TrEMBL record:
Provenance organism: Pseudoalteromonas arctica A 37-1-2
Keyword terms of this UniProt record: Oxidoreductase
SUPFAM superfamilies registered for this protein in UniProt: NAD(P)-binding Rossmann-fold domains
One Pfam family hit: adh_short_C2
Coiled-coil segments: none
Domain of life of the source: Bacteria
Keyword Oxidoreductase on entry: yes
Annotated protein name in UniProt: Short chain dehydrogenase
Similarity comment: Belongs to the short-chain dehydrogenases/reductases (SDR) family.
GO MF terms, alphabetically ordered: oxidoreductase activity
Amino acid sequence: MKVLLIGASGIVGAAIAADLHDHQVIKASFKNSEHTVDIQDKASIEALFKKIGNVDAVISTAGLIAFAPINELSEQDYTTTVGNKLMGNITLFHVATKYINQGGSFTFTSGFLAQNPAPGSAAVSMVNAALDSFAKAAALELEGILHVNTVSPHFVKETMEIMGMDSTSGITAADTAKAFRHAIESNQTGKAFDVVDYI
C-alpha cells in the first residue's frame, strides 16, 4: 500500500513509519522530512500531491496546539490551534481526496482529550472533538469511496518524558502506531480508534 504520512518527523509519526515497514511510506512534514508541506497552505499540499501522485492512504499526525489553563489561553492560542490542527487538517483532507485511490483511506489524529478533557486542555479538546465529528460526518457521505477515521492517542510516554512528566501512565509511540496500522488496513469508516484497543 502506498501511504502518505504527514507529520512523519514527530515522535508518533516516526513510530508509525517504522511500524508500516511493509508498506510504501512517503514521509512529509513541515520540516526535517523527505518531503516538506505546510497543511495551512493549500498550494503547498497540492504541490506535494503533484510530486508524489496518487496514494492508497493518507495519515496525518500534524497539528500545532496550545495547552494551557483556560484563563491563560489567548485569542492567538485559539487561532493557532483551530487554524493549524483543525482547519489545516481539513484543508489537507479536501486536497487529498482528489489523490486517494477509490477504496482508500484518510486518517486524522484527534486525541484522548476529546472525550476526557483535563485542566489545560480546553483548546486541544475542542479541536480533537471537532476532528472526530468531522470524520464521522465525512464518512457518511463518502461510504464506498473513501474510509475516513480518526485515531485517538493517549499521552505518549516519550513526549511525557521530554516534558518532565511522570510517564507511568503513558503509552509508547510504538504502541500508539498500531492503531494507525489498523485504521489503514481495516474496512471500517467513521470511527475514532482508541489506541488502547490495539496494543
